From TrEMBL:
Transmembrane parts of this sequence: 15-33, 53-77, 84-103, 123-142
Origin: domain of life: Bacteria
UniProt name for this protein: Membrane protein
Protein's organism: Amycolatopsis rifamycinica
Keyword vocabulary terms for this entry: Membrane, Transmembrane, Transmembrane helix
Length: 151
């Protein structure tokens, strides 16, 4: 008698949300690695005085890296369900859209730049916003449910 195991297949959107989550985790970790993050010794907890640059381009701080790590954990957790994956992608995209607008209106040299962000971050945030919202809303095919696996 063959044993029957149930394998739950993830939707394409769940897989994409998990990938986005892993990328955020990777970026959060890389932000704490000297060399990958240049001017590492100038990193502050938060604020525009942090001179650390992820990949020599994107302004980061300890808070910024923690936010990336938290976004990654949220992405992996929410990717466990189809509705959670959609909510993560669309909701996260909206958060990044707001962050992009914020980065456009603040003075990057002021205390209002607590995240901190620079011009490269602003463009990245716009790209993330558009990409995440698109991945959350575009049709990606039919959802497949549990299947019997007779190994």
């Amino acid at each position: 008698m063959a044993s029957m195991e149930t394998e739950v297949r993830r939707t394409p959107r769940q897989l994409l949300a998990a990938i986005v989550g892993v990328v955020f985790l990777l970026v959060g970790v890389l932000g704490f690695i000297p060399g990958v993050t240049t001017h590492y010794d100038t990193m502050t907890f938060a604020g525009h005085h942090s001179g650390a640059l992820l990949l020599g381009v994107f302004n980061v701080s300890i808070l910024h890296n923690i936010v990336h790590l938290a976004f990654g954990v949220a992405g992996l957790a929410m990717a466990r369900t189809a509705s959670g994956a959609r909510a993560f992608l669309v909701g996260g995209g909206v958060v990044y859209l707001v962050l992009w607008l914020y980065g456009l209106v603040i003075d990057h040299g002021s205390a209002a730049n607590f995240v901190p962000v620079n011009t490269a971050d602003n463009w990245l945030h716009l790209g993330l916003a558009v990409g995440m919202i698109a991945l959350g809303l575009i049709p990606l095919g039919a959802t497949r449910g549990p299947v019997a696996d007779s190994r």
